[in-house]
Amino acid sequence: MLPLALSSLCETTFWTRMRALYIAPLAATLLALSACGDGGGAILTPGGGGNNPPPACDATSCGDVVIGLTDAEGDFLSYAVDVVSIKLEKENGDTVQALPTRQRVDFADLVNVTEFVTSATIPNGTYVGATVRLDYSDADVSVEVAGIPTPASVVDENGNSLEEVDVKLQLEDTNHIVVAPGTPALLQLDFDLAATHVVNPLTNPVTATLDPVLVATVVPLDDREFRLRGPLVSVDEAAGSYIADIRPFNHPTAKNGQLTVLTTADTAFSVDGDELDQADALAAMTALGADTPTEAHGVYDVSAHTFTADRVLAGDSVPGAQFDGVIGNVTARNGNELTVRGGTVIRTDDSVVFARGDIAVDIGPDTLVTKEGGDGTALDISAISVGQRISALGTATASDVNPTLDATAGRVRLQLTHLTGTVVDTNTGELTLDLFAIDGRNPLFFDFDGTGGSISTDADPQNYQVATGVLDINDFEVDDSARAFGFMTAFDAAPPDFDASTIVHGDDIRALLGIGWGFGGTDAPFSSMGRDGFIVDVANTDLGLRRFLQVGPRIVDIRTLPAPIRVEPATEGRTLYAATRDREVRVFTDFEAYAQHVNNLLTGGSHMRALTARGSFDADSTTLTANYVSIIFTVN
């Protein structure tokens, strides 16, 4: 494993820093929390439905767009802000409001998921940019401090509280959005939390200093799962599809256009708690009728403009429809009481809250337990073990601090859980990991008592046994990084501790580079820069405490690498490069043009404040081949 010196603790993810506090004290300093997560975004594409068109807008003068919001895994436990508007700007300066309703969005909840927000009809034309307005006046932001979900206040660089913030972007000339009848339009807006905040966990309250980054491209940088929530409109059993109104983020009343959901024989359905096949499920949805709550997860085909679900919830299987819901990871289990520390509570009154305290979930013999992606067979409550991500339905108390959920006559659905760690042993059909995270949470703050039949067989996060079955693990060796997706072994039945359905080698895990030069920035961040990349000047005296490279669980201070790190543009796959100055962003897909723009800003008097890059890292050449680079500059 790459060494992690005490001096580089501030470059690790937030909870890793907190884990280190058990070993040695940490000096008071600013920690670059968001630099250790992936960013997220909004996707605009042509759709099959929309709102009422504006005046003088018809089939020949307008086109449709579908908008979705997403955020990849990061370090915030909750990041709920109001997205007030998303405006698209034409070449002539005219703007179009593409978001019909104000939306309360918890970006931390959108881990690797894109939520459909609206399907809107907008005038034809060429759109060259966008502006997203965020309202922080009632923001609910939380981070983890020593295992405790802790509120954080989002402030500007002067420490002032934020209210409404506009983030503007400009698309490169070759990637404008063209909206016309029958002409596909595509735009991905990325509100990059990874490059946006500097967090100080030692203040009261914790502060997250915001310098927002919004990037965009006409081709999505990453393939993500899509989610559609909203009331049922109609079902076409013969075609194997249904139409739903778009009502995102548990909004109580919004109907932001419509979208067709295609299903297949492999789509998993849960309708009113029953696990059904495609034909029976669509028939049951037809019987339930219009306005039945639905939730679908699946794949959006950009070229065909179709959404195909791999799993669908309908009726009272949807959290908050007929039952209160709790979503989160089980951090402890004592008999038939589960503890979810820092989870989301969705109530039938349409209220949604991230509960920073412990949530007690009571289960019993009558609790119906099912498994996401399973064959529909009901499981025993023993299937719910520590670490498992769950969606529990029942009756919740009114408190938002330490609420309880009575699911003794309700339901618990086991959701796919993911681990990251370092291999400490390999055997046929099994990897043993030193865990780095369980769904982004520090495993040291999970209580694994009772997971095995005795104290000696309880799960040990430093020697966590992952059953791999028939998965190919021949390339894994001791000290390799690994990421696993699957489900925890039943409570009281470990070892093994985890049953993996997917395992990813560290060589295939995207690397993250985070560098900061303080709020004053630097005019000489690189020892060289050209059309083929740049080399970071690690001897620069302006280099701040944010100076890390992370590949899975491996985190190092870039100054400890054998040679200065080089960042080169990727020659395969999708690319996206952004430069932000005074909350205005220019985005590029061509690195040579991007490098020239960065050089112009530096020679024009702007200083480089922060850099975030993602891609594949070659340790032998200390080279990061980047598909994504985001740089923030100071104002002259």
Describe the structure.
With 636 residues, this protein is mainly beta. It folds into five domains: 204 residues; 83 residues, OB fold (Dihydrolipoamide Acetyltransferase, E2P), CATH 2.40.50.140; 92 residues, OB fold (Dihydrolipoamide Acetyltransferase, E2P) (Beta Barrel), CATH 2.40.50; 92 residues, OB fold (Dihydrolipoamide Acetyltransferase, E2P) (Beta Barrel), CATH 2.40.50; 123 residues, no CATH class. It has three helices and 42 strands. The strands form four sheets. It has a 19-stranded mixed β-sheet that branches. Strands 15-16-17-21-20 form a five-stranded mixed barrel. The two termini are 42 Å apart. The N terminus is likely disordered.
Query: What is the 3D shape?
Result: globular
Helices, by number, come to 3
Strand content: over 45%
Radius of gyration from CA coordinates? 24 Å
Counting copies of identical and different chains, the oligomeric state is single chain
Helix/strand structural class: mainly beta
Give the overall pLDDT as a whole number: 84
User: Uncertain regions: pLDDT < 50 for 5+ in a row?
Assistant: 1-42, 46-55
Number of strands: 42
Strand count, sense and closure of the main sheet? 19 strands, mixed
Whole-number tally of structural domains: 5
Q: Could you tell me how far the N terminus lies from the C terminus, measured between alpha carbons in angstroms?
A: 42 Å
Spell out the blueprint of helices and strands.
Blueprint: H1 14-20, E1 40-45, E2 62-71, E3 78-90, E4 95-97, E5 103-106, E6 113-123, E7 125-145, E8 148-155, E9 164-170, E10 177-179, E11 187-191, E12 197-200, E13 206-210, E14 214-217, E15 225-236, E16 241-245, E17 258-262, E18 268-271, E19 274-276, H2 278-288, E20 293-301, E21 306-314, E22 324-334, E23 337-346, E24 352-362, E25 368-371, E26 389-396, E27 404-415, E28 417-427, E29 430-438, E30 464-467, E31 481-488, E32 498-505, E33 511-516, E34 526-530, E35 533-536, E36 547-551, E37 554-557, E38 566-569, E39 576-581, E40 584-588, H3 591-603, E41 608-618, E42 623-633
Parallel strand pairs: 6-15, 8-13, 9-40, 17-21, 18-21, 24-27, 25-27, 30-32, 38-42, 39-42
Antiparallel strand pairs: 1-2, 1-11, 2-6, 3-4, 3-5, 3-7, 7-8, 7-9, 7-10, 11-14, 12-13, 15-16, 15-20, 16-17, 18-19, 20-21, 22-23, 22-26, 23-24, 26-27, 28-29, 28-31, 29-30, 31-32, 33-36, 33-41, 34-35, 35-38, 36-37, 39-40, 41-42
